[in-house]
Write a structure and sequence with these properties.
The structure holds 2 protein chains of 2 kinds. By secondary structure, chain A is an all-beta fold. In chain A, the strands form 2 sheets. In chain A, strands 2, 4, 5, 8, 9 and 10 form a 6-stranded mixed β-sheet that branches. In chain A, strands 1-3-7-6 form a 4-stranded antiparallel β-sheet, with no helix packed on it. In chain A, a hairpin with a 2-residue loop joins strand 6 and strand 7. In chain A, 41% of the residues are buried. Chain B is built from no helices and 11 strands. Chains A and B meet through strand 8 and strand 9 of A and strand 5, strand 9 and strand 10 of B.
Chain lengths: 108, 121
Amino acid sequence: SSELTQDPAVSVALGQTVRITCQGDSLRSYYASWYQQKPGQAPVLVIYGKNDRPAGIPDRFFVSSSGNTASLTITGAQAEDEADYYCNSRDSSGNHVVFGGGTKVTVL
Amino acid sequence: QVQLQESGPGLVKPSETPSLTCAVSGYSISSGYYWGWIRQPPGKGLEWIGSFYHSGSTYYNPSLKSRVTILVDTSKNQFSLKLTSMTAADTAVYYCARVMTTVTDSAFDIWGQGTLVTVSS
């Protein structure tokens, strides 16, 4: 399969923890990378590889995986974490890239 | 630091074949990394278009492969995207990005700001 599935939307109370999932067969072989996108802006890479964060990304973002599911967890969610989050990976062939449909995170 | 800047025609007519360009500064595309194009229709999600490595390997989204060509100009440190037979469904913000590629993942670590291409008569 070359698809990655994400829940369309999730909400979290300020300061609480939220988990966003990404499902797909290719995740059994490849890591998911995660992107944050705010309105009118380009996506920003927040997590890649086993649990690597680019410079400037706070450590309240971390990932875990099990089987065909990768999860991005935000602990102590802040107002600035409200955004769309996308996962991506390679497809099962390994030669192509696929994106999930995105999850809108609302911080209440 | 590494920066990417897209440029494009803005408005194209149906069936036209526009050319979008991604100018890279702060890093030579001949030095390594994969580089790619991603698009996002208004209000929708991200779609990978294709990626290439400076030595010549190029990969395209199977759903777009028949209409897409990525060309590289190392002398200008830029790469371009050509998408034939444009329709309204191709209206989107087109992003270029650098790709960190390993055996186990492909992560787009640096993105341009994007350029909106609207297909309309």
